[in-house]
């Protein structure tokens, strides 16, 4: 017995034109490479934007912390001045109240020093508006003009 074998031929353009299928595959590969390059470029740009955002956020956080500390120190300075006046008014009297005021003054001064405050001696120096804050002006024959008296 003999069998009849039939084969089926599929009509596809690639079957008849091998160069056409190679050029189609080549253009698809080139298009995929282009997409890959575009995606890689986009990823690198997003990475750079994120890095810039992170740095900017850190810088703003540091500036805010510095500013917040400055505001706190400025708010506490008049209190420190009040303690100094209270100690001066006590006139060197040694009692429990004076010692208590002195302890509070010392702790406040120590805390402000830890925050970066520096005590500056200004009495007798020339007034500098960038460094000093004038409360009032006093006429004095003992001191030259624009000299910090107190």
The chain-level mean pLDDT equals 83
The fraction of residues assigned to DSSP E strands is under 5%
How big is the Rg?
Answer: 41 Å
Identify the CATH architecture of the domain at 16-114.
Answer: Alpha-Beta Complex
Shape: elongated
Looking at this structure, what is the CATH superfamily of the domain at 16-114?
GrpE nucleotide exchange factor, coiled-coil domain
- Helix and strand element order: HHH
Pairing-aware structural class of the strands and helices? mainly alpha
Q: How many DSSP-defined strands?
A: 0
- The N- to C-terminal Cα distance equals 130 Å
Total of helices? 3
The residue ranges in which pLDDT falls below 50 over 5 or more consecutive positions are none
Helical fraction equals 55-70%
CATH class of the domain at 16-114 reads Alpha Beta
**Biggest pleated-sheet summary:** none
CATH topology of the domain at 16-114: Hemagglutinin Ectodomain, Chain B
């Amino acid at each position: 017995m003999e069998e009849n074998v039939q084969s089926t031929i599929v009509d596809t353009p690639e079957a008849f034109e091998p160069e056409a299928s190679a050029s189609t595959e080549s253009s698809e590969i080139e298009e995929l490479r282009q997409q890959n390059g575009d995606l890689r470029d986009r990823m690198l740009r997003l990475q750079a934007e994120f890095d810039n955002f992170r740095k900017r956020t850190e810088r703003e956080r540091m500036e805010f912390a510095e500013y917040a500390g400055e505001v706190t120190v400025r708010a506490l300075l008049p209190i420190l001045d009040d303690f100094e006046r209270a100690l001066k008014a006590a006139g060197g009297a040694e009692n429990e109240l004076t010692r208590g005021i002195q302890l509070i003054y010392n702790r406040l001064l120590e805390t402000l020093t830890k925050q970066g405050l520096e005590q500056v001696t200004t009495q007798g120096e020339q007034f500098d508006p960038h460094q000093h804050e004038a409360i009032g002006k006093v006429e004095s024959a003992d001191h030259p003009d624009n000299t910090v008296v107190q």
